[in-house]
Design brief:
236 residues; Rossmann-like_a/b/a_fold; Rossmann fold; 9 helices; oxidoreductase; six-stranded mixed sheet; alpha/beta; EC 1.8.4.10
């Protein structure tokens, strides 16, 4: 039984978010995860781009068997698909492959080739945002691996948030982690990472829209390079 099941039926999720966001600001990562699992039980999932399995490793310690949603856009690097398969084989989680409503071929037939180059916002919406929105409908909350140090738009995020767009709770357990803390956790725990990180891809998206990053460049400068875009839309 979760905490939600023991409380009044009309409990407002937005009230839970506000009190938890204050109480858990600056709390240890595992404390945040334990709160979320105790509160939402089987109605919480985890999303992963398969850049690394750090959050998967952390959450599966508290909730083995948790659903991990991976959006397979049809444009991923082979290394990303391989990371997904390795995660499924190694960790005690249930990986769910989420796909867009159209295949790449069907999208190109309807909207023309290389939509990602002509209208990257629309391509991201069709192949990432919309499929994930559908997949999240069966849950009350989701774990996200965003960090404040990644982009300017993430600096004011909170460890527990109300996801107004989807009408659910979003939990960001590693929000305050630095890249050094992430690297140390991965090394200390032998966490699976996408091998593209070794080839100068510090931030990994779809293959057509991601390039290697030179030393000294912003780690996310290889995402949608030259397009004036920094977010796919999932976390906006």
């Amino acid at each position: 039984m979760t905490l939600l099941e023991t409380d009044r039926p009309t409990l407002d999720l937005e009230d839970i978010v506000e009190s938890a966001a204050e109480a858990l600001e600056g709390a240890p990562t595992l404390e945040v995860i334990r709160w979320a699992v105790a509160t939402f039980g089987d109605r919480i999932c985890l999303t992963s781009s398969m850049s690394d399995a750090a959050l998967i490793h952390l959450v599966s310690k508290v909730k083995p068997g948790i659903d991990v949603l991976f959006v397979d856009t049809g444009y991923h690097f082979a290394e990303t698909i391989g990371t997904r398969d390795a995660v499924e084989a190694v960790y005690p989680v249930n990986v769910i492959n989420v796909t867009p409503s159209r295949t790449v071929e069907e999208q190109e037939a309807a909207l023309g080739p290389r939509l990602y180059g002509r209208n990257p916002d629309l391509c991201c919406h069709l192949r990432k945002v919309e499929p994930l929105g559908r997949a999240l409908e069966g849950y009350m909350a989701w774990f996200s691996g965003i960090r404040r140090d990644e982009t300017a738009s993430r600096r004011n995020r909170r460890v527990v948030e109300w996801d107004r767009k989807r009408g659910m709770v979003k939990v960001n357990p590693i929000l305050d982690w630095s890249q050094e803390e992430m690297d140390n956790y991965i090394e200390d725990n032998g966490v699976i990472i996408n091998p593209l990180h070794y080839d100068d891809y510090p931030s990994i998206g779809c293959e057509p829209c991601t390039r290697p990053v030179a030393p000294g460049e912003d780690p996310r400068s290889g995402r949608w390079a030259g397009m004036g875009k920094t977010e796919c839309g999932i976390h906006l």
